[in-house]
# Entry
Amino acid sequence: MRERMNKIHMRGRIVIGEGERDEAPMLYIGEEVGICTQENADQFCNPSELIEIDIAVDPCEGTNLVAYGQPGSMAVLAISEKGGLFAAPDIYMKKLAAPPVAQGHVDITKSATENLKIISECMNRAVEELVVVVMDRPRHKDLISEIREAGARVRLISDGDVSAALCCAFAGSNIHALMGIGAAPEGVISAAAMRCLGGHFQGQLIYDPAIVKTGLIGESKEQNIARLKAMGIDDPDRAYNADELASGETVLFAACGITPGTLMEGVRFFHGGARTQSLVISSQSKTARFVDTIHLFEQPKALQLR
# Structure
C-alpha cells in the first residue's frame, strides 16, 4: 500500500495507520506519502496546485480472520482533505451503525432495546426480523443478552467490524445494525464510508480499561483522560456522528476483499494471476463502485469467467 501511494501524484499524510505507540516501519501516523512529498518533488509538482489530503488506513482489517482463513477481512482506507478525518487515538470506541432510513433517529446514548425498536419502525419490520452484529467479546455479555431479550438476532464476529458497519448501509446484506465496542481508528474509517452512503454511524470513545477488559489501552482511566486532553479532546464522553468523524468536504472510502465477505469476494489465485474485488465509495461523485479485477502476473493458461 505504501509503495502504491508513493507512485500517486498527491500530497498525503497518514492520520490513522500503525498505532501511535508502535515503532512501525511504514504507514505510521504522521508519515507523508505521494510523489509530491518526496525530496525531489519540485521536479514533478507545484505545491500550490495540490491540496494536502489526510489518509486513514488499515491494510489488513481482520488480521486474525486471514490467519485462520475466515471470511470478512479486507484492506481499507479513507481519504479527505487535510483536517477532514478525526485523528482518533489508538484506544476503543463504542459504535452504532444502522441503515440510511434510521439515520438521525437512532442514538448511541439510548439503550439497545430502544434503538432496535426505532430501527424496526423505520424499516417497517418486526424487531424479531432484525440482525445485529456484535464483536464476540466478554465485555458484550450484557449487550448480547439485551438484544436477544428484545427479540432481535445476534451475529457474533471475532474481528472486522468495518465490514459489519458497511453492510448496514446495503439492503440485502441481512445486517441491520452494528453495536458494541471496537477499535477507535476503525470507527473513523467506518464513519467515512457511512457518511458517503447516507447510513447512520456514531462513535463514543471508551477510555476506561475496566470497560474494555483487554489491558491494551493504558493503565488507568485518569491517564487516558489526560492523554485525550493532550490531543485536544476536552470532552471524552462526547458522541460523534459520521459528519464529525469524517467532516471533510470530500470523502473517499475504498476497500478490497482479502478473504470472502458479505459485500466482496476475497483474493482468488489462479495459475498466472489473481482476481480481486474492490468497493470504492465517493461523496464527490455520489457513487459506490464494485470493481472486479484480474491481475496477470504471467501469461495465464486460462481465465475464469466466474
The longest strand covers residues 52-61.
